[in-house]
Amino acid sequence: MSGKKPIFLLIHFLIRFLFQHADSKFHDQEQAVLLRLKQHWQNPLSLEHWTPSNTSHCAWPEVVCTNNYITQLILDNKNISGIIPPFLSHLKNLTFLNFYNNNIVGKIPVALYNLSKLEILDLSQNYIVGTIPDGIDRLALLSCLKLDANNLSGDIPAAIGLLPELRTLQLNDNQFNGTFPPEIGNLSKLEELTMAHNGFSSSRLPSNFTQLKKLKELWIAGANLIGEIPQMIGEMVALEHLDLSSNELTGNIPGSLFMLMNLRLLYLFSNKLSGEIPQVVEALNLTFVDLSQNNLTGTIPVDFGKLDKLSGLHLFVNQLSGEIPESIGRLPALKFFSVFSNNLSGSIPPDLGRYSALEAFQVASNRLTGNLPEYLCHGGSLKGVVAFDNKLGGELPKSLENCSRLLTVRISNNAFFGNIPVGLWTASNLQQLMISDNSFTGELPNEVSTSLLLLEMSNNRFSGSITIEGDSWRNLVVFNASNNLFTGTVPLELTTLRNLTVLLLDKNQLNGALPSDIMSWKSLTILNLSQNQLSGQIPEKFGFLPGLVKLDLSDNQFSGKIPPQLGSLRLTFLNLSSNHLMGQIPTEYENVAYATSFLNNPGLCTRRSSVYLKVCNSRPQKPSKTSTQFLALILSSLIAAFLFASLFAFITIRVHRKINHILDPEWKFIHFHMLNFTESDIFSGLKERNLIGSGGSGQVYRVAANGFGSVAVKRISNHRNSDQKLEKEFLAEIEILGTLRHLNIVKLLCCISNDNSKLLVYEYMENHSLDQWLHSEKKAENEEIKEPCCVDEMCVVFQLGVFCTSTVPSARPQMKEILQILLGRNPRWVCGRKNMRHAEHASTPLLNSSKSERLAESDGSLASCNG
Fold first, then answer.
1. What is the pLDDT of residue 684?
2. 714 in a labelled binding site
3. Which CATH number does 441-617 carry?
4. Taking 90 as the threshold, does the pLDDT of residue 233 lie above it?
C-alpha cells in the first residue's frame, strides 16, 4: 500500500503540471490576440502600453481577467478606427465586450457569435453598417445588447426574441427599416427597449409589447408609429419612462397611463393625439409630462396639482381651453411650465414661482387676463418669461427686479403699463427683452445688460432722449423702438455699436441732424428713421455701410442733394420720400425698382423719363440761323432714312417674329437687389455654349451680366396650358429666396417671367461644389477644426441634394422642411452619430435657453449595463 502512494503523488503533480502548462500556453495565446488587435488597428496611441513584457496583460487597464482568463475587454472612448476582426472570437471566455464611442466601421462579424459566454455587448456610437447577422440567438447568455447610434439597416432579426436573458436592448438612431418584430414581446426579462429614430415602415406598436411586465423604459420616438396607443399599456406596471414622441399616433391618450404608479417620464409630444387629457391622475411619481404639439382638447386636469414630484409640464400647441388650475401654482418641484398656443383663459395661478424654483414660464398666445404672478422669480432661478399675445395687464412683478439668471422676457402684445423695473434692464444674463405693443412709459436707461442682444420696445409710450453711456450696449444686435415718444437727436454713440444689424427708430419725435461720422455699423442691414423731424443732409457715410439692404428716411426734413455714395449700396428697399431733397438722384436708382423711393421731393429730378420725378433739364442755348438750316437738312435726311428703315424693318420683323419669341414684350422684370444689368443682357446669354446644367424642370446658364460679373440663370419652361403646381412652386421660390439673406445661400437677384417661360437670376458662385468639399486635398489651417466642423454639414447637404432630386415626388422635401434641414431641426434628415439621448425635441422652443431639459431629467439609461 505504501508503495502506491508515491505513484499517486507522481500522477497528481504530473496532472497539475500539465494543467499549468496548458493555462500558461492559453494565457500566451490570449495576449497574442490582444497584440494582434492592436496591430490590426494601426497601433492607436490609446493602446501604446499594450506591449509584450514581463507584465501580464491582465494588468492592462482595458482588460479584466478571471482565473487568469480574459473575461472583459473594455475599449470605450479609445479613438479606435477600423473593423472588428473575426479573430477577436478567439477570446473564448469573454463575458463583457465594450467598443462604445469609437470609429469602428464595417459590418458586425458573425464570428462574434462564437463568444458563447458573452453577457454584455456594446458596439454603440460607431459607424457600423449592414444588418444584424442571423444567428444572434447563439449568444444565449446575452443580457445587454447596445447597437445604438450606428448606420445599421435592414430588418431587426426575429431571433432577438430568442435571447431569454436579455434585459437591455438599445437599437435607436440607426437606419433600420421594415416593421417592429413582435418577437421582442417574448423577452420576459427585458427592462430597457430603445428603438427611436429609425426608418421603420409605418406600423402600429405591437400589442404584445404590453406583455413586457418588467420593462422600465420604452423609447420609440421618431419611428413612424401609427394608430392608437394600446389600451393595455396600463398593464406594464414596471414602466418608468415612456417616450413615443414624434410619430403619427392618433386617438385618445389611454386613461390607464396615468394610473402607472412607477411612471416618471411621459413624452407623447409631436403626434396627432386628440380628445381630452385623462382627468384622473394617480401616477404620483411623474416628474416630467410632455403632451405638446397634438390636437388635445378639454381642460388641464386638476389632478396635475397632486404631482408633488413634477418638474416639467409641457402642453403647448394644442387646443386646450378653460383656466389653469390654481393647484399647479403650488407644486413644490415645478421648474418648466409651457402651455403656449392654446385657448386658455382666466388668470394665471398667483402662486406660480412661490413654492418652487421656476426656470421657464411660457403662456404665450392664449386669452389669459389679469397680472403676471408676483412671485415668478421668487426662487431666483427664472430664465425666461414668455407671455406675448394675451390680454394680460398691470405693472410687471417686482420679483423681476432681482432676477440675475433671466435670459429672455417676451411679453409683447398685451396691456401692461408703468415703468420697466430698473433691475430688469440690467439683469446680468438678459439677452432678449421684447416688450412691444403695450403701454409702458418712462425713459430709456443709460445702461443695460452687457448680454443684451435684442431689444424690441415698439408701440409703447416711452419718452425722453436716447442716451447711450459706457459700453453696456456693445453687444446689441437688434434695436426696435418704433412708434414711441422719444425726442432729441440720434446720438453719435449709437453709431459705435459694431454688432448692430437692425435699427428701427421710426415714428418718434427725433430731431436735428444725423451724425456725420459713422463710427461702426459695419453689420447694419436695416435702418428705419422715417416719420421723425430729422433735418440736415443725409450723411455720405451711409454709402459706406457694406451690409445695408433696407434704408427708410422718409417723412422727415432732410435737405440738400442725395449723396452719390448711396449708389454703391445694393439696397432691396429704399424710401427717401417726403423730404426736401434736391438735385439728380443717383443713376443707380434710375430704374423701375426704385420708382416710388423719392416721392414728394419737388427738388429731385432724373435723367430718364418717369411718372414720379421730373426730368433734369440742361441749360437752354439760343439757336443761330446757321444751326437752324443745318438742323433742317439733318431732319430731311432722317425722314428719308426712317422711311427706308421702316420698310426694311417691316420685312425683317415678319421673317423673325416666330423665332425671336424670347424678346416677348410681355416679360415681367422684378428686382430684389440693385442691378446694373437689364433683361436684354440676360436674354443674350441664353445660348447653348453657356449651358452649365439641365434637369426635369429646366436649364441653368452662366451669363455675363453687365457690371455684375457672372450670374446663374435658371430657366423654367412651361406652356400656357400647364397646371397650377408649377406656378405655385415658382411663386414659392421667389417668395422665400427673394427675401432671404444668408452668407451661405446664394442671392436671388431678380426674376423675369411671361406666359411661356420663367427665369430666375441668381448670384453665381465660382467653383463652389459639393465635390470640392468632399474631395479637396487642401488642408485646414487649424487642425483642431479640420474634420468634425464640416463632415456633418457635408452629410446634410448631400442628403438634401439626394432627396430634392428624387424621382418620387412624395420623397422630395417641402420648402419648410428644407429650412428645418438647414437649421438642423429635423431629426429625419440628420446623418452620422447622434449622442443626445432623449433631447431631440427642444423643451423650451420659445425660450432657447435650455435644449436638453429632458436629457437632464432622464438621468441617462434606466437599465444601463456596466459589467
1. 78
2. yes
3. 3.80.10.10
4. yes
